[in-house]
Amino acid sequence: ENDNDKDKDKDKETEPKQEEAKKEEPKKEEESSISGLDENVKNKSKASPTVLPPKKNEIIDKKEFSYGVRFNYWSQDMEDLIGITITDKDAKYKTLKDELTKNQVCKISEFEYNLLNEKAAIYVDTPYCQEKIEAGVNTMGIRILDKITKEHLISIMLYCNYDNMRNALLSTLIREPFDETNESMLERHSHFYHFGKLLRESIECFGVEAHRSETKVFYHGIDFDRKIMNDDEIKSLFIYTPLSTSSLMEICLNNNSNQSDNNNDNSLILELKGYVSKYFDASWISDYSFEKEQIFFGGTRALTVNKCIDYKYGYDHKLFINSMKYIPNIFKMPMSEWKINKNDDMLQETKEMIRNLIFHQLNKIDNKYPDNLGKNGIPKDIEENLNKFSLSTKEIRMHYDAMYNHRAYGFLSSLFMTPTRTFTKLDIITTLFPNINTLSMMRVPLTTLTFMYLKSIINPPKPANIEEEKDDHKDNGDDHNDNSIIQPLRCKISEFRLLDPKTAAMSIDAVIQAERKSLAQYQWTIDSPDQVSLVLKYSDIPVIIKEPTPPPVIEEKKEDETEKKEEEKKPVKRRMKRKKRPQGKGGQKGKPKTKPKPKPKPKAAADETTTAATTEETKPKTESSEQQ
DSSP letters of 485-519? Predict the structure, then answer.
């Protein structure tokens, strides 16, 4: 008890101290929020994902593609493990004016520089620059909400309007050759130190995040490249050099058509998405404002390729490649348990493209199927791969549940599955895959309708216009159901496998007993090798089913026959019924065998008794005759 009292006294002493500390904490936070902006920015740079060093066991994603070299101009404020550190001491010129007018690599005249300076001074004082262009969160030493400066505007106008200066800057950000050392890169880029630094500050400090743009997408033209179309090879882009894009796809089409190269037909137009990547809208300051130029620079955040549009025909290569990935999975499902993942959800445009590709392949054999792609609406490499897959496939494995699941391939159920949901449409399967010989169906329900449909495919009915055989052939020939006659295979598929079927309606043993004889007539066998699946297979020789007849079964049959005969006789006896005899005087029934002795009567009544006796004698005679 004394110890508890001491603890309570200590708690009372510490409570006022804690309350005082809590009151002092918000004061410290207010001071840091006012005077410590730069310190907070430094702390944020250390916590950014681009700054943290990679772990030893970290797996590097090979789908990331980077281009160019990034320089770190702010080594004191920002830590960049990827960038090459360069300082103002490494710069060849002290000011931006000297760098542009006295540069030995590429320069402009002083008149041009003065003109750019006057334009920038006018733009800085406009309400647009004063109200809408402000510095955001950055790690480059520029305070938040600062206004854009005249030097930053000069660097943007120089990049947009002077092609020679833009190309000279880009050349210093690309390794030439590929294994060029960092010292060599530093030496070449030192001629454009101020130009590169101001341009990057303009974009990453005063720029806007890509998801806040009006169009949300950006277009850029490149030469034909297969790797950038496939997400398995390149999924995200890190462009360290300045990247000019446009919010209008027509600009890329126009620029590509004006080029003198003869390989413009193989060009691509990339549709990019940046999400949190920052860009600068230079359309209001560029001499070519109709181009709607948007500039990315730095590569601190990834760009993703949304579409790869063909320059000549306008289709999306990326959509075709993604759709072709799903088609083999539809017809070659894995043997393992199939599960639905959230990542398996397909876009609606991908589903429509899969249907169009299947219809395009079916239309080559039968014109009744629609062809929405046309002759030039599909890339040549995609069409070659589709033809190769269709002709080389000999075994198909489909999943019944996947064909009816809206998150999997339910959009193809009307094309590939029967209206009664019994089985897949084999006429479409054999048309799409002409060389198929084995079909496996997983988790299909075992019902009588399923095997009625399979038997209709195994033994299809003859067309009505075929002439009947002659009578002499029918008389001399054997019956067509005779098992000794070898029957040809009447369908392309010679083996059906029902893997792990649903046995709610019928069990596997019940199916085998019920369908073995009927399938043997068509020279097919049915068996369950693992007691979990069913295999229907065509046999090259007649299938003969021998049923053993042991002796006990025969004796029971004879006993059953004798019992039936006895039962047939018994009902005949029961049907015989005696008719009622005529009643005498006093309502008593007369007996057929004994006759009552007549009593002596007077003569007057003698005649009446004789007549009554004669009638009584005649009636039993007639009755006995009828009974005989």
Answer: SPPPP-SS--EEEEES-B-SSS-HHHHHHHHHHHH
Query: For residue 581, what pLDDT is reported?
Result: 57
Cα–Cα dist 466/418, whole Å: 28
Cis amide linkage into residue 16, ω under 30° from 0: no
| pLDDT for residue 25 | 43
CA dist 202 to 295, 483, 508, Å?
A: 10, 88, 73
Could you tell me the CA-to-CA distances from 366 to 152, 187, 293, 340, 384 in Å, in that order?
64, 66, 49, 34, 19
Q: What residue has token string 């007018």?
A: 101
Q: Which are the contacts of 553, defined by CB distance < 8 A and separation ≥ 6?
A: none
Contact assessment for residue 283 and residue 218, using Cβ atoms and an 8 Å cutoff:
no
Please state, as a whole number, how many other Cβ atoms lie within 10 Å of the Cβ of residue 503.
Answer: 14
pLDDT (0 to 100) of residue 471: 45
**Consecutive H or E run containing 65:** strand 64-67
Tokens 């392949």 appear where?
361
For residue 281, how many other CB atoms are within 10 A of its CB? 17
**How, if at all, do strands 268-273 and 304-310 pair?**
antiparallel
Report how far residue 130's alpha carbon sits from residue 147's, in angstroms, rounded to the nearest whole number: 7
- pLDDT for 394 equals 94
Residue 304 DSSP code: E
Element containing residue 383 per DSSP (H, E) = helix 380-392
CB atoms closer than 10 angstroms to residue 495: 14
Pairing of strands 64-67, 293-296: unpaired
> Coil, strand or helix: which one is 541?
coil
The pLDDT score that the predictor gives to residue 570 is 56
User: Is 312 buried (19+), middle (13-18) or exposed (0-12) by CB count in 10 A?
Assistant: exposed
Q: How many Cβ atoms are within 10 Å of 228's Cβ, its own excluded?
A: 18
Yes or no: say if 10 and 3 are a contact pair by the CB < 8 Å rule: no
- Residues of the chain with confidence (pLDDT) below 70: 1-62, 258-265, 337-344, 462-487, 547-628
Closest-CA residue to 335 (of 443, 494, 446): 443
Q: What is the pLDDT of residue 558?
A: 58
Q: Which tens digits make up the pLDDT trace of 110-122?
A: 999 999 999 999 9
Query: Residue 310: phi, psi to the nearest 5?
Result: -70, 135
* Residue among 57, 60, 63, 82 at smallest CA distance from 72: 82
3-state secondary structure of 269: strand
Locus of tokens 């990935």: 325
- pLDDT (0 to 100) of residue 493: 92
Residue 294: its H or E element: strand 293-296
d(CA 549, CA 551): 7
Structure tokens at 65: 């593609």
